[in-house]
Design a protein that fits this description.
The chain is mainly alpha-helical and 155 residues long. It is built from nine helices and no strands.
Amino acid sequence: TEEVKRTLSAMYPALIMSEWTQLQFATFLNYLAKTEDGAVLWHCSQGKDRTGWGAAFVLAALGASRDLIIADFDMSNVFYRAEVERLSSRLREMGGDEEAVEVIRGFIGVSTRNFIHSLNLIDKEFGSMHDYLVNQLCLSEEELEKMKNRYLIRS
């Protein structure tokens, strides 16, 4: 339905624009910056949307390129491919068009198109991903450096 399509297209912008969600991601990143020993595991109900944004913020904090962040996010579609294809085939058999199949891809897998749109929204509204991390997710330059020192191998 049109409502489902609107929900899909609004989901990622809502994740990055909501003050409550920003606070949750800020808490998560702060935890990563302060963790000195051991591993950190994070997850959500399906491990793809909120978890994917969390991974995107971590990669951005570590200095990963936009292309790498997008490719990493899109990996969820590799893992959910069989289920997306199964449901998409059924939908096509019932007369569903490619626009409807895209909704299936977005809810069962991830919508890389909407993810890229939301990255562009971050740039437009906040200046850059770095500015978003610092100003919206409250990571200091010192915490960003601590994360790089903790999680990157440097030569």
